[in-house]
Amino acid sequence: MQAMEYIENRTFDEIRVGDTATLVRTLRPEDIQLFAIMSGDVNPAHVDPEYAKSGLFREVIAHGMWGGALISTVLGTQFPGPGTIYIDQTLHFSRPVGIGDTITVTLTATRKFDHNHHILFDCVCTNQDGQTVIRGTAEVLAPTEKIKRPRVELPEVTIVDREARYQHLLDRTRGLAPIPMAVAHPCDKESLLGVVEATQAGLIVPTLIGPLSKMRAVAEQQGIDLAGLTLVDAEHSHAAAARAVALAREGRAEALMKGSLHTDELMSEVVGINGLRTARRISHVFLADVPTYPKPLLITDAAINIEPDLECKADIVQNAIDLALVLGIPEPKVAILAAVETVTPKMRATLDAAALCKMADRGQIAGGVLDGPLAFDNAISIVAAKTKGILSAVAGRADILVVPDLESGNMLAKQLEYLAEALMTGVVVGARVPIVLTSRADTAETRAASCAIALLMAHAKRKQSQAK
After folding, report:
1. From CA 425, how far away is CA 170, in angstroms rounded?
2. Which of 37, 126, 142, 266 has a CB 3.0–4.6 Å from the CB of 241, allowing a cystine?
3. Considering just the CA atoms, what is the radius of gyration of the chain in Å?
4. CA separation for the pair 108, 18 (Å, rounded)
């Protein structure tokens, strides 16, 4: 085995005054987050960028003891190493350590005590500019017996920062005016909280449609302030859905949001004779922010079309591409999913995938790069694609996943949400206005994030209308 796979100490007798050891580390944002999680130190100077900008150093800085921990790392792992017992430590902090700073920790043995095997060390931490950021001394009880052990492999740590990902989506809406939105039957806690949160974030100007007594009762029971919001009375959920669609059809709402009613109640009004249909088939797109995937994933259709045929899938693909472009994804890569990556007459999904790719070649689907059929692993993993010998601009790099049917898409989306900690938002596309079609289990945060997508779509539509 290689030497790096072992951890070995230097005994008291092996160390001479003047001997040194060093460690180099670069501060990353996740280092600060992990230290805050471990210690519970959530001082805003370390974890709140907005606060930090107005602070003494004008930026987020590391906890002082992050550098102190690096000194402890040298003492405990290499100099002297395993068997070392900390006795005393003094530190003086000269300069802050900011994100991206590279810190070199240098420990120098300055004095040895034969009677108790103690060693004094001079400890200096310098940044990439050679400036001292921490200086101090450490006293340890050094080991007297040689220790060599296999280096323990630490588990990988993934920080699931839903708030940061949520804020990243909201950042895309900054500078855009809120849009009028009709909310159908918001008669439970999460529906009302989602509206309030989206309103406070400057995303929407809502009109809440439903039984007034019920909406107010829920708000009072849950401590939700509805002051300043427009409430429209509707005797039941069906009436609320009809009124919401009417507001959009009349141009008084640029988006819809589903409240606590069933999906089919709202969508039956949307697709009805006096609804919001266009020449394009209506479909649903999930936007998944998955911690283990380097970019957002659009998944379609997992909520509207149960068993789409080829013609329907062409519209589903085009709808998703158009949304991706609105979200700032240039020439999105579209993976048409199936169970296998080869075309076989025994599996309709593979035939549809091949046909969709040819339709894109002929300009019947525009704005994206298509490939398929692709199995899920080949679509999102470059390693898997290379292993199977798939040469493609899409494989392993997909922006959009087009599923064979609603059941597979619904399971995929919920697996990502509940097993992979994905932040899921969703919107119905292909109608005259975007529709936030949330699940009754969705949180207020998810509903507000979906409103951000609807806002971006509505403003993109405004630009298209102005350009005509």
Report:
1. 12
2. 266
3. 29
4. 6
Q: What is the rounded distance in angstroms from the CA atom of residue 95 to the CA atom of residue 415?
A: 46
C-alpha distance from residue 414 to each of 160, 212, 371, 442 (Å): 17, 33, 24, 11
Cβ neighbours around 228 below 10 Å, total: 7
Do 297 and 284 contact (CB within 8 A), yes or no? no
Would you call 296 exposed, middle or buried from its count of C-beta atoms within 10 A (0-12, 13-18, 19+)? buried
- Convert the pLDDT of each residue in 22-37 to its tens digit: 999 999 988 998 998 8
CATH 3.40.718.10-classified regions of the chain:
278-430
CATH code for the part of the protein at 3-150: 3.10.129.10
Candidate CATH numbers 3.40.50.10950, 3.60.21.10, 3.30.870.10, 3.40.50.300; the one for domain 164-277: 3.40.50.10950
Question: Residue 378 is encoded by which pair of tokens?
Answer: 């080949």
- Please tell me the total number of residues recorded for the chain in this structure: 468
Enumerate the CATH 3.40.50.10950 domain ranges in the chain, comma separated: 164-277
pLDDT at 162: 66
Mean pLDDT of 177-181: 95
On whether the 278-430 domain is CATH 3.40.718.10, my answer is yes
Task: Give the Å distances, CA to CA, from 176 to 145, 367, 446, 462.
Answer: 67, 25, 20, 12
Domain with CATH 3.10.129.10 in the chain: 3-150
Residue 98: alpha-carbon gap to chain centroid: 24
User: Residue 122, Cβ neighbours under 10 Å: how many?
Assistant: 15
| 2 pLDDT higher than 60 | no
8 Å CB contact between 52 and 103:
no
Measure the CA dihedral 434/439/445/448, to 10°. Answer: 20
Q: What CA–CA distance (Å, rounded) separates 123 from 107?
A: 5
- The angle formed by the CA atoms of residues 213, 252 and 443, to the nearest 5 degrees, is 55
Look up residue 175 and give its two tokens: 């500078």
Q: Give the whole-angstrom CA distance, residue 459 versus residue 454.
A: 9
Q: How far apart are CA 190 and CA 181, in angstroms?
A: 17
Contact assessment for residue 402 and residue 336, using Cβ atoms and an 8 Å cutoff: yes
What whole-number distance in Å separates Cα of residue 374 and Cα of residue 449? 30
* Helices and strands in the chain: count of H runs, count of E runs: 15, 18
pLDDT value of position 1: 35
